[in-house]
Amino acid sequence: MNLQVHKDLIALSNAKVKNIDKMNDGAKRVNYESTMHMSSYLVALVARDFEYIEGTTINGTTRVRVYTVKGHAKRGTFGLEGGIAVVNYLSKYLNMKYPLTKMGMLSAPVFEYGAMENTELLIYNRHTLLFGAITTDIRGKMKGIALIVAHEVAHQLFGNMISMDWWNQLWLKEGFSSYF
């Protein structure tokens, strides 16, 4: 799969970037590696002038990034640290190597829902991922970010990699993701 976008945009998808071809018309073609099999509702494609902060899991095998509109990346530090902590916790608790090599956490400027667990590219409403300067309940805000990040990261295993057969089994993926 590939996306052709303006050269100044960051193009995101579920997959890792394989290579980028510069086009003559001021665009670029971003070519992606193949992904694991996934349900169609988990596919994500986004292009915008993002900036990001990043870290890696404790064993260094999973790169985690928080993407934001320009000027807001530092507000994603708590979410980034939380995402890394959840991956580390699940790996230890389940006694397994976390199977994904990247995890993008996107703060969408406009997103109707709290968050969506797209495989390897989690999309959050900006209010549910970023820590803002204007809040009277800092502890409550931190708890809210931590809970939604933990829930969406847990979905990478429970609901995305191990999926339900049909929508009447939604309680399985939501139950396990809420538990962890």
TrEMBL record:
Superkingdom classification of source: Eukaryota
Membrane-crossing segments per the record: none
SUPFAM superfamilies tied to this protein: Leukotriene A4 hydrolase N-terminal domain, Metalloproteases ('zincins'), catalytic domain
One GO MF term: peptide binding
CC per GO annotation: cytoplasm; extracellular space; membrane
One biological process term in Gene Ontology: proteolysis
Pfam families: Peptidase_M1
Limits of the Peptidase M1 membrane alanine aminopeptidase domain: 79-180
Signal peptide (UniProt feature, chain positions): none
Cofactor(s) recorded in Swiss-Prot or TrEMBL: Zn(2+)
Keywords associated with the record: Aminopeptidase, Hydrolase, Metal-binding, Metalloprotease, Protease, Zinc
PANTHER family attached to this UniProt entry: PROTEASE M1 ZINC METALLOPROTEASE (PTHR11533), PUROMYCIN-SENSITIVE AMINOPEPTIDASE-RELATED (PTHR11533:SF174)
Entry similarity comment: Belongs to the peptidase M1 family.
The protein's name in its UniProt record: Peptidase_M1 domain-containing protein
